[in-house]
Design brief:
The complex is a heterodimer of chains A (257) and B (292). Chain A is an alpha/beta fold. Chain A contains ten helices and ten strands. In chain A, the strands form two sheets. A six-stranded mixed β-sheet of chain A has the order 6-7-8-3-9-10, sandwiched between helices. A four-stranded antiparallel β-sheet of chain A has the order 2-1-4-5, covered by helices on one side. Chain A starts with 8 loop residues before the first strand and ends in a 5-residue tail after the last helix. Chain B has 292 residues and is mainly α. Chain B folds into two domains: 40 residues; 231 residues, MetI-like fold. In chain B, 73% of the residues lie in helices and 0% in strands. The radius of gyration of chain B is 25 Å and the shape is flat. Classes of the chains: A alpha/beta (257), B mainly alpha (292). At the A-B interface, α2, α3 and α6 of A face α7 and α8 of B.
C-alpha cells in the first residue's frame, strides 16, 4: 500500500501564503501532491489543514477577507491566473465535506445534480451516471430500490457515501476530503476508508484528517501541518516509522494535539 | 460541620412561592384581557351580522336599502387588486431578497438598505397611500384605478415580503451552498436549484401573511381614492374599484342601525378570508418545513 510510485504531481504548490484579514493561516507552503495516490493532511486543530484543502478548489475564497500569495498549479495550470474559472477547476476537483451534506432531494436527484448543472439532460445518460457513481461509492446495493426516496432518510454513513458518489458523478480527477469520517460511527468510518482505498485507482485523493491512525491506514503520503506551516511531507510509512522532525514525532506519538 | 450560609427558612420560602403565584396571576390576567376582548368582538360581529349573511349578500351590489346591500363589487374589487398586487410584490420582493442575500456585497450601503427595509415595514399605510396617489394616480396617470390600487398595495407589503424572503434564504445551511459550489455550480445555478426550492415555503408563508394584511388594508386605498359605492364588476384594470374593508368602513359610517349589521356581515366575510389565508400559510409552513 505504501509503495510510493513516481508519478507526475497533480498539484504543485509553491511559496503559498494565506491570510484571513490580519491573521496568517498558511505560511510558505510548498508541496507536490502525487497523482492517483492518497495524500493525507494531518495536524492539530487550527493548523490550517482545512484552509489548505479548501484552497485547492478555491472554496476558501467564499470567506470574505481572504488574501493569498504564491502559486498553486493544477496539472501545470495556474489555478489563480486571471482568466481561470473556478467552475472548471471544481469540475475536475470534487470535494467531500466533514458533515454529510446531501440536498433535500431524492437519492437520484442528489447524484444527478452535478451532471445536470454541467448540462447533461438525457435521462438514459443520467441513469447510467447515477448507477455507476453509486456503485463506485459502494452504495448501489443498499439504495437501488429506493432511488426516489429523500436522501435524508439514509443513515449518516450512507449519506457520506452518497456525497462521495455525488462528487464522483461529475467525473473529477481529484477528490478532496475534509475530515470525511469525523461525523461517522466506527463501522461507517471503516466502510468509507475501504472505499477511499479503492478510489485511488481512478482518482487522486487528498484527505484532511485529525485521526493519525486513519492517515496511517489509508494514505500513501502524509503532510504534517503545524501553525500554518508544513513541518514534514513524506511517504506515510517513513513518516510514521522514522520522522525527521521532533515535532512530527511528538504529534504522531500523541504528546500533543 | 461548617457554618452553612443557606438554611431553609419556612417563612421566606412561603413568601417566594406566593410571589411566584402573584406573577403567574398577572400574566394570566394579561392574556385573559386580550382573549376576552377578542371573543367579545367576534361574538358581537357574529350576532349582529349573521342575519344578513346569505347568498344574496354575496351576489348583490351595494344598495341604499340595507336588506338589498351586498358585497359582490367589493369581493370582485379585492380579487382584482390582489391579482395585480400578488405578482408585482412577489416578483419584486423575491428578486430583491435574492439580490441582497446572494449577490450584494456585505458593506455599509447594503446594511443601510436592510435597516431601512425593516423600517419601511413599519411605516403607516396612509403614507404608502400618499405615495401611491402621487406616483401611480397622478405621475403615471393611472387614475383612481385597480392598477394604481394594486401597485400601491404591492409597495405597502413589499418590505414585509423582502424581510420574510431574506429570512427564508438565510436559514439555508452553508453546507448546502458548499455542496453545490464544490461541483462547479455557478451562483445562479445554486439559486435556482438550491436556494429557491429550499426558501419557497418560507417565502410563501411570508407572502400569504403579508397579503392577508393587504386584504384588510383600508387607509392606503382610501388615499388613492378607491370608491365607496360601486354597482358594477370591474372589467379592466383601469376601472374604478372598491374593496371589502372600504365597503365595510362605508357601511359602518352610516347612521342607520341596519347598515351597522350589514357592516358586521361584511366583517364576517373578511374575517373568514383572513382565517383561510392564515391557515394556508400555517399549512404550507408545517408541510414543507425542512430539517437539515
Amino acid at each position: 500500500m505504501n509503495d510510493v510510485k513516481n508519478t507526475h504531481p497533480v498539484y504543485t504548490i509553491k511559496d503559498f501564503n494565506l491570510w484571513y484579514g490580519e491573521t496568517q493561516a498558511l505560511k510558505n507552503i510548498s508541496l507536490e501532491i502525487p497523482e492517483k495516490q492518497v495524500t493525507a493532511i494531518i495536524g492539530p486543530s487550527g493548523c490550517g489543514k482545512s484552509t489548505f484543502i479548501k484552497t485547492l478548489n478555491r472554496m476558501v475564497e467564499l470567506i470574505p477577507s481572504v488574501k493569498m500569495e504564491g502559486s498553486i498549479h493544477y496539472k501545470n495550470e495556474d489555478i489563480f491566473k486571471p482568466n481561470a474559472k473556478v467552475e472548471s477547476l471544481r469540475t475536475e476537483v470534487g470535494m467531500v465535506f466533514q458533515k454529510p451534506n446531501p440536498f433535500p432531494k431524492s437519492i437520484y436527484d442528489n447524484i444527478a445534480y452535478g451532471p445536470r448543472i454541467h448540462g447533461i439532460k438525457d435521462k438514459k445518460t443520467l441513469d447510467e451516471v447515477v448507477e455507476k457513481s453509486l456503485k463506485g461509492a459502494a452504495l448501489w446495493e443498499e439504495v437501488k430500490d429506493r432511488l426516489n426516496e429523500n436522501a435524508f432518510g439514509l443513515s449518516g454513513g450512507q449519506q457520506q457515501r452518497l456525497c462521495i458518489a455525488r462528487a464522483m458523478a461529475v467525473e473529477p480527477e481529484v477528490i478532496l476530503m475534509d475530515e470525511p469520517t469525523s461525523a461517522l460511527d466506527p463501522l461507517s468510518t471503516a466502510k468509507v476508508e475501504e472505499l477511499i482505498h479503492e478510489l485511488k485507482n481512478d482518482y487522486s485523493i487528498i484527505i484532511v484528517t485529525h485521526n493519525m491512525q486513519q492517515a496511517a491506514r489509508i494514505s500513501d503520503k502524509t503532510a504534517f501541518f503545524l501553525n500554518g506551516e508544513v513541518i514534514e511531507f513524506d511517504a506515510t510509512e517513513k513518516m510514521y516509522s522514522n520522522p525527521h522532525d521532533k515535532r512530527t514525532d511528538d504529534y504522531i506519538s500523541g504528546k500533543f494535539g | 460541620m461548617k457554618n452553612k450560609i443557606i438554611v431553609p427558612n419556612e417563612k421566606q420560602i412561603s413568601k417566594r412561592i406566593l410571589k411566584n403565584k402573584f406573577a403567574k396571576g398577572i400574566f394570566f390576567a394579561a392574556t385573559l384581557f386580550g382573549m376576552v376582548v377578542l371573543a367579545t368582538l367576534i361574538i358581537r360581529i357574529l350576532t349582529q351580522g349573521i342575519g344578513y349573511l346569505n347568498i344574496d349578500f354575496l351576489t348583490n351590489y351595494a344598495s341604499r336599502r340595507p336588506e338589498d346591500a351586498g358585497i359582490k363589487a367589493a369581493i370582485m374589487g379585492t380579487i382584482w387588486v390582489m391579482s395585480i398586487t400578488i405578482p408585482v410584490s412577489l416578483i419584486l420582493g423575491v428578486s430583491t431578497s435574492i439580490y441582497l442575500e446572494e449577490y450584494a456585497p456585505k458593506n455599509k450601503f447594503t446594511r443601510f438598505i436592510e435597516l431601512n427595509l425593516a423600517n419601511l415595514a413599519g411605516v403607516p399605510s396612509v403614507v404608502f397611500g400618499l405615495l401611491g396617489l402621487t406616483m401611480f394616480v397622478r405621475f403615471f396617470q393611472m387614475g383612481r384605478s385597480i392598477l394604481a390600487g394594486g401597485f400601491t398595495m404591492a409597495l405597502l407589503i413589499l418590505p414585509v415580503i423582502v424581510v420574510a424572503s431574506k429570512e427564508a434564504i438565510r436559514s439555508i445551511p452553508q453546507e448546502q451552498y458548499e455542496a453545490a459550489y464544490a461541483m462547479g455550480a455557478t451562483k445562479w445555478q445554486i439559486i435556482r436549484t438550491v436556494v429557491i426550492p429550499a426558501a419557497t415555503p418560507g417565502i410563501l408563508t411570508g407572502a400569504i401573511l403579508s397579503l392577508s394584511r393587504g386584504v384588510g388594508e383600508t387607509a392606503s386605498l382610501l388615499m388613492i381614492g378607491a370608491m365607496t359605492f360601486i354597482a358594477y364588476v370591474p372589467d379592466s384594470v383601469l376601472d374604478g374599484f372598491t374593496v371589502l374593508p372600504i365597503q365595510i368602513f362605508n357601511w359602518a359610517s352610516r347612521p342607520q342601525a341596519e347598515f351597522q349589521s350589514v357592516a358586521a356581515a361584511g366583517s364576517i366575510v373578511l374575517l373568514l378570508i383572513l382565517i383561510i389565508m392564515n391557515s394556508l400559510a400555517i399549512l404550507i409552513r408545517n408541510k414543507y418545513s425542512k430539517r437539515y
